[in-house]
Each structure stands twice: as C-alpha cells, then as structure tokens.
Automatic annotation (TrEMBL):
Reactions accelerated catalytically: L-aspartate + L-glutamine + ATP + H2O = L-asparagine + L-glutamate + AMP + diphosphate + H(+)
InterPro entries membership: Asn_synth_AEB, Asn_synthase, ASN_synthetase/amidase, AsnB_N, GATase_2_dom, Ntn_hydrolases_N, Rossmann-like_a/b/a_fold
Protein name: asparagine synthase (glutamine-hydrolyzing)
Class of this enzyme: ligase
Enzyme Commission number(s) from the entry: 6.3.5.4
Source organism of the structure: Microbispora maris
C-alpha cells in the first residue's frame, strides 16, 4: 500500500518542477513511511511514498520499463493485486522477464502486453497512474469497488493527481475553493460518484479509467455491476459463497510483513478471522485486534442500532478459533485529544467524519500498527449481503430516498448540517440535492427483464449500497488506516463475490429469517453459535456522557470565540441544543451536530478554504 502523486503538463518542462512534486509527495508520507521516489520527464512528474508489503527490497517506485535504453512506460502504484502470481506466470510464458518479485512490476508488464484493457484481468484493490512515453498518454485507474482512492484536477495543459486531495492541493495550480455543490456534498451523505467536493477536483470513479492525451481527458468504465438471472439453487449458492470466501481470504493473506484481522464479534469480522485462522493453521495462526471503551460493557445501554456490546462475542470467537488477541481500550480523554482529532481531520481532508467512530478507528489502527502492517477487515459484508437494519425496515425500504437517510435519529446521517443558519440552509436546499442524487442513482440500476415487486426493489437497494454507501465507509477505512501506515484489506469487496451475491434473489439472502442469511450459512461451521445467532450491530460508539460533556464545552468555546464557522451557524439553535439535559448515557445520533460544528470549524481554519456559495 502506498501514496501516489503526479503532474502531467504538455505546456512546460516538468523536470524543472521537482520541488513542487516533492511538496505533493510529502503529503503522502503517512501512506508510505518506508521509502519515497520520484521520476520526472519533459511533460510528466511522478511521486511515490511506499508502504512495503510485497518484495520489500525489489518493489521500489515509481517503476519504469524500457527498450534500448529508453523509458517506454512508467508506473506509480498503490494497492495490492491478489492474482499477480498467475498473471506473472502468464506473462513469463509470453516472453516477459522480471527483475523483482513485486506485484507492481506485474501491473507494468501487463500493461505493455495487453494495453489498457489489462485492467479487466486484475483482482485486487488498487489506484495507479501509467505514463506511456510512446503515446504521451496518462492512464489513471481505480479498482472496481473503489477500495483505494484516486483524485485528479484538470489544468489548462494537463492534470494533477494524487491518492488524496491534499497531494493535489500542495500544487499552486489547485485552488482551495468549495462552491455550493461542494458544501451540499459534504452535508448530504449521498457520495455522488466522481464528486471530490473541492471545485475543479474529481475522484476517479470505481471501475473507471481516466485517460489524458494532448487532445484532452476521456473516461470509460471497465467494470460496473450487471444484473442477470440467478440459476443456482440455495445449497449451491451457499456452497459457492463459501468457496469464493475461502479463495479470497487465502489470496489476501499473502504478505511479506506481519498480518492480523480486525475482530468486532459480529458475523462479518468473525467470519474473516475464522477463515484466516483455518488458512494459517500450522503457520503460526492469526492475530486479532478489537476496539473497546473503558466501562462500555458494564454500563452499556441498548439503542435502536445496538442491542449488545461486542466484548462477549469477541471472547467467544477468540476461544473458538484460537487467535492471539488484543483489546485496544480507549477512554473519553483519548477521543477528545486535540492532536488526535487534528490528525483525523488531516487524514480525511474534509469534514466528512462521524465523530468518535472516526477517532476510535484511527486510534485502533495506530495501536495495531505497532504490531502489524496488514489487517483484514469485515467491512462491506453488510452492503453485499444485506445486513443493515434499514434493509429490513419496510418504511426505510419504501421511503423514496437513500435508506440510510430514512432511519431518522438512529444514525445521525440525515441531520448533518442542521446547525447551519436558515438562510444558508435555504440556499443549499439539501433535500433537493438528495432527491436529485437519489433519482440519478436509481436510473443507473441494471434490471432483469420482467423483475417486479420486492425483488426489483431490493436489487435497487443493494445497488445504492454497493455504489454509494459503501464508498463512504471504504473511504473512512482507507484514510484512518493509511494515516498510520496500516494496510487494511477487505475480502468482501472481491468483485467475484460482489457480482455473484448481487444477483442472488432477496429471498435467498433472508431465507432463514435473519439478515445476511447466505453469509451465516456459508460460515456457520467455523463460528461459535453465539456469533451465528447475533443480530447486526454497527461499529461501536462511546456512550460515556463525559465525552458529550467535553464536546459541549468545546462547542461553547467556538460560539463564544472568533471562530471560522461563526457566520455559518445558527448560534441560538446551537445554544438550545447545548441547554438540553445530558442523559445517563450519550448516544451517537444525539451528538451529530456537535461533532459537525467542531469538525467544520477546524477544517475551515486548517485548510484555508474559500467558500464560493
């Protein structure tokens, strides 16, 4: 895993711009703490920061391939290609000779052999740029599910690009401007494809190739979800899911550095941990980590989203699979640490966070990084198999908007921005923005001819999650992990599994009366009964009233001071929120506005943003 940056300009000699390239690349240091590199040619400059995972000595970047002493192509690459060994063997049969054992070189040689269509052969998570010196063309490529990020900023004579917006913003050609649509995107929680919030900046869409020539930019999709009739019966479907998972987990255990799993005690992470333990039996076993809060289990109060604390189920899995386990226990002081909160914002680049759930994830990953460089996660199983509670709530399913926004008061996502003043809220008209985004998303859904009723609707719901909601969570996971130099792999995002389960009928996905029925049935033999029967519970959020008390105090200081956000908020409404009595426990949904005010204020100050609204 790595951080990449680059610049193509057909109107200037970029060999003179090493200092600017260095500034762009330096912003990616957290993503690649092990090494850095640069490659410059007349119209192209590539930067790279490396987190060494495969072929520690041989995989240095940017990597070039040449003929007769001339560079033919150059690559700056982030990610992992899990089928690189098979591709390497095929390329060797076609006459290619390799200098390293890295997947990076396989990607570069695959491009030279098959051209840009080679991307359809890759299985993995990746974001990379290839410069073809023969054609003077740049390719920007992102994996099918968008696990790894990639942004670009067109200029009059070329383009800037990077793993994160901060790499692009380090170039003086990029403006730090947020217009009305950018602010709407921050507040709406709809994750519009290609929208990058900063004016003039774009995100390479999952499964997309962006090509730059002298004539300009072009884009094409090399992968998208397709609908087709599912002909397998239930038992065949369960067996196929398990076979895919066995293969996926085994592939994603390949690493030349210490590896672990993230374990919450839920079905998803427990399945990954159990399958990893089975694959590593006799090879040292698997190490696992979980996050907890001081006093959380003892004082836990069930709410609309969380029935039970994680700890008892984590213990059951650890005993069942024999993992070498560690709990990372945090308290409210950890979550309110100003340096930590600043690091989280810096990792995000935008005020898109979800409060303590971001901060605790960052601290969990930071603690894990002291022991492991790679972690396997259960992320995205809910989107693939239909796990969230709103999948099973008729009111949310039929709400006429994104289901995660229909669960009023439970997630807090629908109330982002309620702290803004009335004039600004009227101007932004977030409900209209959400409605437009929802209709455009629905128009994309691939349908099976003749499909009607619940099956048709649940196909739409699944598509919304696999193309929108999952991007919110994958982005969070990537930013928090790479901020500390930890690579997190997501087995449930393997495109083969996603394609197969997407087309399975909703009746199969709920055949036993529970959510994620196919996943439960496919992995029940490797899990303790308590986990197999456990209802979906989201990532934990602190319930400590001391945390909310500290948030309220900080928001009061912002309102009373000369703050960056002062002209945007409705101070009277916020003070009314602050006057509400504090309960015996503090729930996530009730803190959304407080978190939003603090993060927006910090972001406006730290990023020197100009608002053009």
């Amino acid at each position: 895993m790595c951080g990449i940056s680059g610049w193509v300009d057909y109107g200037r000699d970029l060999r003179r711009e090493r200092q600017t390239l260095q500034a762009m690349t330096d912003t990616m240091a957290c993503r690649g703490p092990d090494a850095e590199g640069a490659w410059l040619a007349p119209h192209v400059a590539f930067g790279h920061r490396r987190l060494a995972i495969i072929d520690i000595e041989g995989g240095r970047q940017p990597m070039t391939a040449g003929a007769e002493g001339e560079v033919v192509a150059a690559l700056t690459y982030s990610g992992e290609v899990y089928n690189f060994r098979e591709l390497r063997a095929e390329l060797e049969q076609r006459g290619h000779r390799f200098r390293t054992q890295s997947d990076t070189e396989v990607v570069l040689e695959a491009y030279l052999e098959w051209g840009e269509d080679f991307v359809s052969r890759l299985n993995g998570m990746y974001a990379f740029a290839i410069w073809d010196a023969r054609r003077e063309e740049l390719l920007l490529v992102r994996d099918r599910m968008g696990i790894k990020p990639l942004y670009y900023y067109p200029t009059p004579n070329g383009v800037l690009f990077g793993s994160e917006p901060k790499a692009i913003l380090a170039n003086p050609l990029a403006e730090r401007v947020i217009d009305a649509d950018g602010l709407r995107e921050i507040l709406a929680c709809v994750k519009t494809p290609e929208a990058a919030v900063f004016r003039g900046m774009y995100e390479v869409r999952p499964g997309q190739v962006v090509k730059l020539r002298r004539e300009g930019l072009s884009k094409r999709r090399y992968w998208r979800l397709e609908s087709r009739e599912h002909t397998d019966d239930l038992q065949t479907t369960i067996r196929t899911v398990r076979e895919l998972l066995d293969d996926i987990v085994e592939r994603q255990l390949i690493s030349d550095v210490p590896l672990c799993t993230l374990l919450s005690g839920g079905l998803d992470s427990s399945a990954v941990t159990a399958l990893a333990a089975r694959a590593l039996a006799g090879k040292g076993g698997v190490r696992s980590f979980s996050v907890d809060f001081a006093g959380y289990s003892e004082n836990f109060q069930a709410d609309d989203m969380r029935d039970t604390p994680d700890t008892p189920y984590v213990r059951d899995v650890v005993r069942h699979v024999g993992s070498d386990h560690s709990d990372i226990v945090l308290d409210s002081a950890d979550l309110m640490d100003p340096a930590v909160r600043a690091a989280v914002l810096r990792a995000r680049d935008l005020p898109l966070g979800i409060g303590d759930m971001d901060t605790s994830l960052y601290l969990l990953f930071k603690a894990i990084r002291g022991h492991s460089t790679v972690a396997l996660s259960g992320e995205s199983a809910d989107e693939v198999f239909g796990g969230y509670r709103w999948f099973h709530d008729p009111q949310a399913v039929n709400s006429g908007t994104f289901p995660w926004l229909a669960m009023q008061g439970q997630t807090g996502l629908s109330t982002r921005g309620e702290f803004l003043n009335e004039e600004l809220l009227r101007k932004l008209d977030i409900p209209a923005y959400r409605a437009d985004s929802y209709q455009r998303a629905l128009a994309e859904v691939p349908q099976v001819p003749g499909e009607t009723g619940l099956q048709k609707r649940m196909r739409e719901i699944s598509y919304l999650h696999l193309t929108r909601f999952v991007q919110i969570l994958l982005d969070r996971k990537d930013r928090m992990s790479m901020a500390v130099g930890l690579e997190v792999r997501v087995p449930f995002c393997d495109h083969r599994l996603v394609e197969y389960v997407f087309n399975a009928p909703w009746s199969m996905k709920t055949f036993d009366g529970h959510e994620k029925s196919l996943l439960r049935a496919a992995t029940a033999d490797v899990l303790p009964r308590s986990v197999v029967e456990r209802r979906k519970v989201p990532y934990p959020s602190t319930q400590d009233p001391a945390y909310e008390r500290a948030l309220r105090a900080e928001v009061t200081r912002v309102l009373d001071g000369d703050s960056a956000i002062g002209c945007l908020v409705d101070a009277d409404r916020v003070r009314t929120m602050l006057d509400q009595p504090l309960g015996a426990v503090s729930l996530q949904g009730a803190r959304t506005s407080l978190e939003g005010i603090l993060q927006m204020n910090a972001w406006l100050g730290a990023y020197d943003v100009s608002l053009a609204i």
